[in-house]
Amino acid sequence: MQRRVRVVVGGVFDILHPGHIYFLKRAKELGDELIVIIARDSTVLKRKGRRPILPEEIRREIVEALKPVDKAILGHEGEDLYKIVEELRPDIIALGYDQDFDPEELKRELARRGLNVKVVRIDKYNHELAATRRIISKIMEVLSNEEENRNC
Description:
Elements: E1 6-11, H1 18-28, E2 33-38, H2 41-48, H3 56-64, E3 71-74, H4 83-88, E4 92-95, H5 103-112, E5 118-121, H6 132-151
Parallel strand pairs: 1-2, 1-4, 2-3, 4-5
């Protein structure tokens, strides 16, 4: 019996957009099982300087409901981002085009921990609304225009 290829990705997945869907579909194409690690609220606050719009458990539930995703789990809190990878033991880690990890450094650290993991960078999905910040800006623009129209 052939072993299933496990692919792991991680991210915030705060406001889902076409870029997220593209990323998850492409990651799933790399193997048989796709596990998504959802960043904890505290991790998002620490790394991005803001809390996510949606709480971590809601983000996890939404992502797990997506067709390409086999399982979505919450990441660990704390400094060691590699601990959960050690527990999941993936064959492949897929990185988004904008995730600030150096693939070679990631491979070296995983190898140091006894893991032989292929690291793949997924290309960018080009669409006007393929970024959370652009969606938020668009919402603010629409609301501002509605407000202006009401005041006219």
